[in-house]
Write a structure and sequence with these properties.
Blueprint lengths: L2 E8 L2 E6 L9 E2 L2 E5 L21 E5 L4 E4 L4 E6 L4 E7 L5 H15 L1 H23 L5
Antiparallel strand pairs: 1-6, 1-8, 2-5, 2-7, 3-4
Helix pairs in contact: 1-2
Length: 140
């Protein structure tokens, strides 16, 4: 998972975040650990996902001009309280590059399977180069 910076430009939005410990509470989707099988956190199916009852949400209201940093690995979702314009930025680095590659591959296999191997090769080379730059303390 990547870290996320969430900006609310106008109006208000409530962000719900959950610590990553323990990750099993969120029942990651097989093949895509960035997405939970619990698709409705407000009305979860606790018979199907009983561990989710132990999850403790942290709730923030982000207002106009405010910024919220969401740490890498925190499960989160947003619900607009009013009509909202917001921007979210993800940060990729060596610690989450493999998860990123897996998510890209899953989507490519679904939509463009013939191109998937080429994209994975490109991302593998790019990840090695960027990881080397990161270890050397260099930035692009």
């Amino acid at each position: 998972m990547s870290s996320c910076v969430h900006y609310t430009i106008v109006w208000r939005e409530r962000i719900y975040g959950y610590s990553t410990r323990p990750n099993a509470l969120f029942i990651p989707t097989p093949g895509n650990t960035w997405v939970s099988q619990v698709n409705d956190i407000w009305n979860p199916d606790l018979e199907k996902y009983p561990l989710f009852a132990k999850a403790t949400p942290v709730s923030f209201v982000v207002g106009p001009g405010e910024t919220l940093f969401i740490p890498c690995g925190w499960w989160h979702t947003a619900r607009s309280l009013t009509p909202t314009i917001s921007v979210a930025l993800d940060s990729l680095n060596a610690s989450n590059w493999k998860n990123f590659m897996n998510e890209v591959d899953m989507n490519m296999q679904k939509h463009r399977p013939k191109l998937a191997k080429v994209v994975q090769g490109y991302l593998s080379i790019a990840g090695s180069l960027l990881g080397g730059l990161e270890k050397a303390g260099m930035k692009l």
